[in-house]
Design a protein that fits this description.
GO terms for molecular function: histone deacetylase binding; methyltransferase activity; zinc ion binding. This protein is mainly alpha-helical and 761 residues long. It contains 28 helices and 17 strands. Among the domains are: 138 residues, Alpha Horseshoe (Serine Threonine Protein Phosphatase 5, Tetratricopeptide repeat); 78 residues, Beta-clip-like, CATH 2.170.270; 118 residues, Alpha Horseshoe (Serine Threonine Protein Phosphatase 5, Tetratricopeptide repeat).
Length: 761
């Protein structure tokens, strides 16, 4: 979650309500972030810190050999049931809770290698075998591991290495006979089989599997912009008194053209619903799978074989290299703070990591900039010996459409007008201090204060000019180079910035049964990040770009023809195909502090009664639109029907519950029961809902899944095509959602052997 846990929020809000009015006024009217932090921080009392410590204690982020054993045994159960994916994840949890160079971690690595072998991930299996051996895998179990290694090498087409492994294995049998007679016979039979495979592979060329993701990672900008690193030469940076900074096309841009490719300055993996330690229960470990179990905490790459931090069970990485880079740049500070950061939320975590990354730039310059916060009314200027052209402009462009005009250099640019993709650019994103509520600012200030005090109490001298890479196990504590309160102000600034400037990194996640022939997907939030260049794009409810992510890299492409001189626009979330104008404007106003005046909003404002609406109720007699407030009347010229809105809303809620029950039957394999329930819902829908209602789409989609599971591809395609009509109305013909539905339809046609329709879709 972005903000602190509900218990801490409620606690601080109560504390705020009990403050004397004079103190509330002082904090509410603070003119600078330094003043806000200065007046709020002393109010954090020892009892407040104790309450926060109790909350943090509910998260298990340390090493625990009992947890390692628990997860290994659960993984063994999954393995025996041939659920190798589930087994690999549970073994990974066991690895994370094991201490380095322990028998526990070696056993978990070895078991995970077996699961990976059955999943066909032979290269990764080999890496886990090496890890198991490095951490002291028991000598008596080594033959099994070496045999698995030989089988991997044979399958990968590396017969010479496999032959050497077999020689080592036979030598081990001869010198250290640690196996029983029956075990020895089983291994000998397997060994003979592997030898035959080696001989068959001897004369074949070696095979090196290719990484498919490289195809996409290698796509670069045709010509990079000289003034905006990470952006195409087809765009330029402009400033306007109302819009703030924004990007404009310098030539006609065709659909699909890559406009921005940018690595995040900072990103933090969204942990998902991390369970608190159950109170009063014997088992305190949870087998729930979260983002943190499946993705690298630095580069966000998906992995079934993460490498854990040596000091905590929370941080996991796709490789030793990623782990070392994270340790050198920020995790050496964050490692002991895992539980506190989970309690204080993602925004506080991103704020801390942003300031830690600032150390890798000119720290003296950064510190001076931060100190400037105290004397420049909240606006800090980059150091420069040369005059910089200044102009009147709004500090918007990162979600703000109208603000107080002030005279200042172009934020985020150097003295030559080049936009900097560094901490300077991050620092100049607007915190919108004046727009946040006093209660929210107080919550953020006390959360940052608690984090600073924990840093101080732990002796973590986090901010230093001596930033040479260190070995993970022998990192020297850096020397404090600035007042911690100065960095506290910086963290507070970042925490307030994030509401308007944070970018959700998303990924496509497969849903449904893994046995299903039809793949369904959904978009999920993977991480929260700050992108200096992406933040330059203003919002439109009907944008001319689309954004996608590969790990921490954002790519923005034109989704339609953009003429020279047109602004490059991005959607902040509220899209015209997903929300009505009133809902969109309310959301943008509450989160981004501006009233949207994009063309779709203006058109819809001028046509308040146009169209029946996608969630409209219909007359059960003549199917005409029902209109009104508490009592709805039929709009048909010859129909006098009327009905209570509350009655129709109650019917809709009951229908949604039935659809949910049918979907549960579908997930549990009770197909006939699900179909009968869905057909009943379908009949009920026709009596009072529009054919474009979202529930209609859900029913048709579920029926399509049910018939596909039964192998009735023709009926499945019929219902999926009806679902497509609803999706197109709600999301548009060129939407990502439409693409997902068309892909499902192509799978139905493919499985039904209708090749022409499959290709056409």
């Amino acid at each position: 979650m972005d903000l602190p846990v509900d218990e801490w929020k409620s606690y601080i809000l109560q504390k705020w309500s009990l403050l004397p009015k004079s103190i509330q006024v002082t904090i509410s009217t603070a003119e600078t972030l330094h003043d806000l932090f200065l007046h709020s921080s002393p109010l954090l009392q020892p009892e407040d810190e104790m309450f926060l410590k109790r909350l943090s204690g509910g998260y298990l982020v340390g090493k625990d050999p009992d947890a390692s054993l628990f997860y290994r045994e659960k993984g063994n159960q999954k393995f025996q049931a041939k659920d190798y994916m589930g087994a690999a994840v549970l073994y990974s949890k066991g690895v994370s809770h094991s201490g380095p160079s322990s028998t526990d971690i070696s056993l978990c690595y070895a078991n995970r290698s077996a699961a990976l072998f059955h999943l066909g991930q032979y290269e990764t299996c080999l890496k886990d075998i090496v890890r198991a051996q490095t951490h002291g895998y028991p000598e008596r179990l080594q033959p099994k591991l070496l045999l698995r290694k030989a089988e991997c090498l044979v399958t990968l087409g590396r017969p010479q290495e496999a032959s050497q492994t077999i020689i080592d294995l036979e030598s081990s049998f001869a010198t250290k006979p640690t196996l029983s007679a029956s075990q020895f016979q089983i291994l000998q039979r397997t060994l003979c089989r592997v030898k035959v495979k080696v001989q068959e592979k001897e004369n074949l060329p070696e095979i090196f599997p290719e990484a498919l993701t490289k195809t996409f990672e290698g796509v670069d900008l045709r010509e990079e912009n000289e003034q905006i690193p990470g952006a195409s030469s087809s765009v330029s940076l402009h400033i306007d008194p109302l819009k703030g900074r924004y990007l404009v096309a310098t030539k006609d841009i065709l659909p699909g053209e890559l406009l921005v490719k940018e690595d995040a300055f900072v990103s933090v993996l969204n942990p998902g619903e991390v369970p608190l330690r159950p109170r009063g229960l014997e088992s305190k470990w949870d087998i729930q799978v979260t983002n943190g179990d499946l993705h690298c905490h630095r580069c966000l790459r998906h992995t079934l074989a993460p490498v854990p931090c040596d000091g905590c069970s929370y941080a996991k990485y796709c490789s030793q290299e990623c782990m070392q880079q994270a340790w050198d740049r920020y995790h050496s500070v964050e490692c002991s703070l895992g539980a506190l950061l989970l309690t204080l939320g993602l925004f506080c975590h991103v704020a801390l990591r942003s300031t830690l990354l600032a150390r890798f730039e000119d720290v003296g310059k950064v510190t001076k900039k931060l100190c400037g916060e105290m004397s420049n009314q909240g606006i800090c200027l980059p150091e420069s010996k040369n005059p910089v052209q200044t102009l009147k402009y709004d500090l918007g462009g990162e979600g703000d459409k109208k603000d107080k005009a002030v005279e200042t250099p172009v934020p985020g640019c150097d003295i030559n007008g080049k936009y900097e993709r560094n901490y300077n650019a991050i620092f100049h994103l607007l915190p919108h201090t004046e727009n946040h509520s006093p209660e929210h600012k107080f919550l953020c200030a006390l959360s940052v204060s608690a984090l600073c005090r924990q840093l101080e109490a732990a002796g973590l001298q986090a901010f230093t000019t001596d930033l040479k890479p260190t070995k993970l196990k022998a990192a020297e504590p850096p020397v404090l180079c600035a007042e911690l309160s100065v960095w506290g102000v910086a963290m507070l600034r970042h925490m307030l910035q994030l509401q308007c400037n944070a970018q959700a990194i998303t990924t496509i996640q497969q849903t449904g049964s893994k046995e299903s022939l039809i793949t369904d997907t959904r978009r999920v939030r993977l991480a929260t990040a700050l992108f200096p260049v992406v933040s330059l794009l203003n919002h439109s409810c009907s944008p001319n770009t689309s954004v996608s992510f590969i790990g921490t890299i954002a790519t923005i492409r034109a989704s339609q023809l953009i003429r020279s001189g047109q602004e490059i626009l991005h959607c902040y979330g509220p899209h015209e195909s997903r929300m009505g104008v009133a809902e969109r404007r309310q959301k943008l106003r509450s989160q981004y502090f501006f009233d949207c005046d994009c063309p779709p909003c203006e058109r819809e404002k001028q046509r308040p009664s146009a169209g029946p609406g996608r969630g409209a109720f219909r007359c059960h007699r003549c199917r005409a639109l029902l209109q009104g407030d508490d009592v709805l009347s039929c709009s048909g010229p010859a129909c006098m029907e009327s009905v209570s809105r509350d009655l129709l809303v109650s019917r809709l809620q009951d229908l949604q519950r039935q659809v949910g029950a049918a979907q549960k039957h579908l997930r549990n394999g009770r197909l006939e029961v699900a179909i009968q329930l869905l057909l009943g819902c379908q009949s009920d829908v026709e009596s009072f809902l529009s054919t474009e209602h979202s529930v209609v789409g859900e029913i048709e989609d579920a029926l399509a899944q049910a018939y596909a599971a039964l192998g009735d591809w023709e009926k499945s395609a019929t219902h999926l095509q009806k679902s497509l009509q609803v999706v197109e109305v709600h999301h548009g013909p060129s939407s990502v959602e439409m693409g997902h539905e068309l892909f499902k339809l192509a799978q139905v046609f493919f499985n039904g052997y209708t090749e022409k329709e499959c290709i056409d879709d």
